[in-house]
Hints:
The protein is α+β, with helices and mostly antiparallel strands. Among the domains are: 121-208, Pdz3 Domain (Roll); 211-345 and 372-408, Alpha-Beta Complex (2-enoyl-CoA Hydratase, Chain A, domain 1), CATH 3.90.226. It is built from ten helices and 21 strands. The strands form five sheets. Strands 1, 2, 3, 15, 16, 19 and 20 form a seven-stranded antiparallel sheet that branches. Strands 12-13-14-17-18-21 form a six-stranded mixed sheet, with helices on both faces. Strand 19 and strand 20 (359-368) form a beta hairpin. Helix 6 packs parallel to helix 7 (264-271) and helix 7 packs parallel to helix 8 (321-331). The longest helix is centred in the first third of the chain and has 14 residues, at 83-96.
Amino acid sequence: MQSDDDAKRYTNSSKKHDVRKYVAGAVAAVLIFVLGLNMGNGTIHISSKIETANKGLPANLNYSDVDRVYDLLKANYDGKLDITKLQDGLKSGLAKATGDPYTQYFSKDEAKTFDEQLSGSFTGIGAELGQNDAGNLIIVTPISGFPADKAGLRAQDVIVSIDGKSTADMSIDEAVTHIRGPKDSKVTLRILRNKSEDLTLTITRDDIKIPSVKWEMDGTVGVITVSQFSEDTTDLMNRAASELKGKGAKSVLLDLRGNPGGLLTAAVDMSSLWLERGKTVLQEKRSGVTTGTYTSQASADGPVFKGMPTAVLIDAGSASAAEIVAGALHDNQVATLYGVKSFGKGSVQEIHKLPNGTEIKITVARWYRPNGQNIDKKGITPDHEVKMSEDDYKQNKDPQKDAALGFLRK
């Protein structure tokens, strides 16, 4: 994973904070999506002149009632209070009061868990979590080859309970905290599938180390599978492009299924392997005002995959950065999309480090495809819809990939 230190620094009210932006889709096992490239050079600033709906709020909250509640608890509660947990509860409540599932406060332990995800190495079951439109906790995607996948979890499975604890009103990050644990320990998930199938799965946790890019030749087609957009993605994609072209690839199949998102720099770099320099990858808007346009950074010699027929695979687990790449290649008419509609994550989050190792993640903007569309809660519809049946899953068939390969071999 490449370093984006410059893109992670942001000045706010004359104080410097470690602020990171990402659009890693609707997941708790999220990867930072750094909004870089101020028209190509590495930083972006949100204009302080842009007014939001919150301009009429008071400068400070009235904490007299909060202090009254604290005094009553301290004087009357039959049990031992933990001041750290009380303060974390206050801050968590403020974030939850926005009603936005992506605006969240992380306690010290939650922040540690969150940051561990960014390295691509952690202990858990290997599944990306999110929420559906009804607010239910769901599996966005089980990561291939890891415990969740081996246990039979699928994208869009609703998690009803974790070790017997109901997930009703449980945040994504709270769920991750309950699901993660020491290697070789077990976690039991009650799952509702397709609104009818009630399943209970006990999964053994393991070390999760995920290389973000894999590639191989299939005849004359270079097949690239990207599991996430992380710090190693750009280097691995460049290696993949060089090796596949060296082996005589005539076309490219880019598999973004089950990809929850990640670094914007990696998404822009990936798009730049197909798009001429200066072509639009995405725009960011805040309160309806465009705050940044992100363009291809292909070399002066042109993109590596210039003119090569390309198919991109997407599904319900393809989110945020994966949707950005799929949209950018499609809208710039260099790729054809196969599969089923993507997840639909069109908002941008910014994460601020707070004292004592805590953090807060805040939705700050929306991103838009080159064609001007925001895909939040809508997703991207492929050019050719190809569904996976129950029989396909059971027999390990892949009609989506087969259809895309058939297209590329014509």
